[in-house]
Structures are given as structure tokens and as C-alpha cells.
UniProtKB/TrEMBL annotation:
Gene3D superfamilies: P-loop containing nucleotide triphosphate hydrolases. The lineage of its organism: Bacteria, Pseudomonadati, Pseudomonadota, Gammaproteobacteria, Alteromonadales. The keyword Transferase applies. Keywords: Kinase, Transferase. Coiled coil: none annotated. This is HprK-related kinase B. Transmembrane segments: none annotated. One of its GO terms (molecular function) is kinase activity. InterPro entries: HprK-rel_B, P-loop_NTPase. It comes from the Bacteria.
Length: 364
């Protein structure tokens, strides 16, 4: 550990006194240990990750989450280039020889990523969602280092078979997934990140333990979720013009087992179908769904692929760059066993749910 690395780690709280409690998470066959100087933070994380909390196991990954005021490291941070369609500053970063520091512009949170230290530092309790994302990013790294491809997709499982759904920004993949959760036997797999890998004659999909995050429009149009808001807020939202409600950028966590009941989560499933939502709310044509050849429709592949982001560290210790081009062939190979469908025309969740129920995930 060189002097700059050690100094930055110390400033971020790597040597802080930790509480006795630790949090153990078991996701598939990966065990993640979270240590902190804050019992309150660990309690919040335990509540969030409740369905994957375990009581014993040898940790594959250890993460430090240090609650403290935001630290000004006075580093020449460089802005991380955002994906097409995204605006505003979000992440900045600084690379050392063996580590990367990621700074969250809006919150002041800082994260140190290296092969030996994985550290979240700053007002963690106030920004627990960023700590949750950092924890999930370590599981994403663990899988990607084993050859899994990172998809920008939601997914669920029914009767031992999975269905994934991707879409361009605002396409409604999370809303569709929650509508599909109303089907008997359906179990949540993932809301926004899905890892896929071809194994033999099938493709396996793995979700991360991140709860669905939905916009207000999804909540007010889903009877099961309306209890998340007060009657007054529901009335206010329903009085808004539809286009304004659709574009409202607020996010709320849906605690799946509270909303849908126990045993409604399954993070690993063989993938039977993949739907790309290429519909639009301004389109008046009837919704159509058709099977496509993704090798001939690489315009739709763009909706499936997802950047590994600033936290991704390769097996050799080097870091992913924002200029790195996504490997289309790797995605096509991972999905070559899976029928791909395009939904086009107008947005019609009910019709697409009926199609999935009857044709893609029928009851045994």
C-alpha cells in the first residue's frame, strides 16, 4: 500500500473504530460481509437486505461503510461520462495505481475501490441507497469477473423459468415486471440489473438484491402499491396531467415481500424469454409483440447492454473506463439460447401481461 493510498484510506475512515455487529449477506453462493462504525446504518441495511441476510459463512467480499461527515479530499476528480440520454453531473473519480476513488457529486459520498479495500464513506445513513448500490456493485463485479454479462433489465421467475424485460429510458420495464408479479407463482428476480451467461443449452439469469424502485405514476396505477402513499398524495398525483406524471423523476423502493407476500423472490433462474420494450406512450397503433433476431436488430441490443460503471475492477486489478465500448458479441453469445421479442406500438401493459401469461410463462 503506497503512501497516497494509505493517506486517502485513513481520511475516508478506514481506521475508524467499528461496532461489534456485522452484516452478512448470502446471494446465491457469494457471501458479503459489511462492517461499520454505525449500528443505525447496519440496522437500515439489514432491513433492506432482509431476504438475503445470513448468520454465518466465510465472506468472499468485505465492505466497510463509515458514517461521518463528507470529506473533501482535494483531489483532481474527473467527471464520469454519463450514458446517452442522461444529463447532469453524477459521479467523478480519481485513479491511483491500485485503487479508484469515486465521488458522488450531489451527496458528497466517497467510495474507495481496490482489490483489498472496498470502502463507503460520508453521510451513509442519509444516503443509504448509495451504500446499497455500492454493496450490490461488489456482487456485480464478482459475477462479471466470472464472465457474466451485465444487462439493463428487469426479470422474474415462474414455474422454474425466467423472463427478462429491457427498454429504452422510461420504457416501463419496472412497471411491466410489477404487473407480471400479479401472476400466480411469479417471483421477483431483478428490477434494473440482470447478469446473464450461457451454460450448456440454456442461459442463466441472476438478479441482484436491489428492490424495485418505481416512479409515482407506477404507484398510483397499481392497486397493490397505493398504500405506499397517503390518500392526499395519491389525489395530488392523480390530478396531474398524464404526461407530467409519467415524467416525474422520483423513486420509491417497493419491499417485495411486504407487498406480495413471502417467498416471492428468486434471484437465479434459467431464462426462457427476453422482451425489449420498443413501444411509446404517444403511439396510437395497437401493441404488437414479435420474435426477432437480435443479431439483425442491434438497435434493440443497445437497450439490453449496460455499462459496468466506475466501480468495476477487472481480475488483473485495472479499472473499467467510461470510454470502454460494450462488447456486443459477448451479449449475443450469452443470449443466443434465448428467444428475443420486441413489443412495439402503444404502451399496453395489460395486453403484454396477457401475452406473457398465455405464451411465455404459462402455468404448468
Amino acid at each position: 500500500m503506497n503512501l497516497e493510498f494509505a493517506d486517502l484510506a485513513k481520511k475516508l475512515g478506514a481506521q475508524e473504530q467499528l461496532v461489534n455487529n456485522t452484516l452478512l449477506l448470502e446471494i446465491d453462493n457469494c457471501v458479503i460481509q459489511v462492517k461499520s462504525n454505525s449500528d443505525k446504518l447496519l440496522t437500515k441495511l439489514t432491513e433492506y437486505f432482509g431476504h438475503v441476510v445470513c448468520t454465518q459463512g466465510q465472506a468472499d467480499l468485505t465492505i466497510l461503510a463509515i458514517e461521518k461527515p463528507a470529506v473533501d479530499l482535494a483531489l483532481p476528480f474527473k467527471d464520469w461520462q454519463r450514458e446517452a440520454g442522461k444529463t447532469g453531473r453524477k459521479d467523478s473519480y480519481y485513479d491511483l495505481a491500485e485503487a479508484r476513488i469515486v465521488h458522488k457529486v450531489k451527496t458528497g459520498m466517497c467510495f474507495m475501490q481496490s482489490e483489498t479495500v472496498k470502502l463507503a464513506s460520508g453521510p451513509c445513513i442519509k444516503n443509504d441507497n448509495q451504500v446499497i448500490n455500492f454493496i450490490n456493485s461488489q456482487y456485480l463485479n464478482w459475477l462479471q469477473q466470472q464472465g457474466w454479462q451485465n444487462c439493463h433489465a428487469a426479470a422474474l421467475e415462474r414455474n422454474g423459468q425466467g423472463i427478462a424485460m429491457a427498454g429504452f429510458s422510461g420504457g416501463g420495464k419496472s412497471t411491466l415486471m410489477l404487473h407480471l408479479m400479479e401472476l400466480s407463482g411469479a417471483r421477483f428476480t431483478s428490477n434494473d440489473r440482470l447478469l446473464v451467461k450461457s451454460q450448456g443449452q440454456q442461459t442463466i439469469a441472476k438478479g441482484i438484491p436491489k428492490l424495485p424502485r418505481v416512479n409515482p405514476g407506477t404507484v398510483v396505477n397499481n392497486p397493490r402499491l397505493k398504500s405506499m402513499f397517503s390518500e392526499q398524495k395519491i389525489a395530488e398525483l392523480q390530478s396531474m396531467p398524464l404526461a407530467e406524471l409519467w415524467d416525474l423523476e422520483e423513486k420509491y423502493d417497493v419491499f417485495v415481500e411486504q407487498a406480495y407476500g413471502p417467498n416471492r423472490i428468486c434471484h437465479t433462474t434459467p431464462l426462457k424469454a427476453f422482451i425489449v420494450l420498443n413501444w411509446h406512450r404517444d403511439n396510437t397503433d395497437r401493441m404488437q409483440i414479435s420474435q426477432i433476431d437480435l443479431t439483425q436488430r442491434r438497435d434493440l441490443l443497445a437497450a439490453v447492454m449496460k455499462s459496468s460503471g466506475p466501480f468495476y475492477q477487472y481480475n488483473d486489478g485495472s479499472f473499467y473506463q467510461d470510454s470502454t465500448e460494450l462488447n456486443e458479441e459477448a451479449y449475443l453469445q450469452a443470449l443466443h439460447n434465448v428467444p428475443i421479442y420486441e413489443a412495439s406500438g402503444q404502451v399496453d401493459f395489460a395486453a403484454l401481461v396477457d401475452y406473457c401469461d398465455s405464451n411465455l410463462l404459462p402455468v404448468e
